[in-house]
Amino acid sequence: MKLQSDVSFAARPITAHGPGYVTVGGERLTRSFLLGPAGIDATWGPDSFDGLSTDHFAALAAVPCDIMLLGTGSRQRFPAPALLRPLIEAGRGIEVMDTAAAARTYSILVADGRSVAVALIVE
C-alpha cells in the first residue's frame, strides 16, 4: 500500500520572496499580510515593524491554527511584550523571525501538512 500526504486545504504556498515583495501562489504581494488556512488577509499588516499594534496581534490571536509565525521584515526584531497581550490572553504563542526565514518555515510546515499561519511584514 502506498501512502501519500494530502495537503488539500486552502493553504497557498509561498513561491518567492525578496526585498519589497512576497509571492504567494503566483500572486505578488508588496504590502504586509497574513496568510493562514483560510487564505490571505491583505488588510492585516502595518507598513513597517514599528507600526505593529495590539490590534495586529489581536487579529493573529483569532486565527485558528496550531503554529503562528511572524516575519518582522529584513531582520529579526522582537515586539514589545505589551503588544503581545492579545496572544498571551488567548494562550497562544508566536515564533518571531525575519520575513525570509518566516516564509521558508511556513512553506516547510505547509508541505508537511501542518496547520500554520504566517504574518509577514514586507519591506
Short descriptors:
single chain; 123 residues; alpha/beta; Hypothetical Protein Mth938, Chain: A; five-stranded mixed β-sheet; three-stranded antiparallel β-sheet; 8 strands; disordered N terminus
Write the layout of secondary structure elements.
Blueprint: E1 14-18, E2 21-24, E3 27-29, E4 33-36, E5 39-41, H1 54-61, E6 67-71, H2 85-89, E7 95-97, H3 99-111, E8 116-120
Parallel strand pairs: 6-7, 6-8
Antiparallel strand pairs: 1-2, 2-3, 4-5, 4-8
Could you describe the 3D structure shown?
There is one protein chain. By secondary structure, the chain is α/β, with parallel strands linked by helices. It has one domain: Hypothetical Protein Mth938, Chain: A (3-Layer(aba) Sandwich), CATH 3.40.1230. Helices cover 21% and strands 26% of the residues. The chain is built from 3 helices and 8 strands. The strands form 2 sheets. A 5-stranded mixed beta sheet has the order 5-4-8-6-7, covered by helices on one side. The protein has a 3-stranded antiparallel beta sheet with strand order 1-2-3, covered by helices on one side. Strand 1 and strand 2 form a beta hairpin. The longest helix has 13 residues. The N terminus is likely disordered.
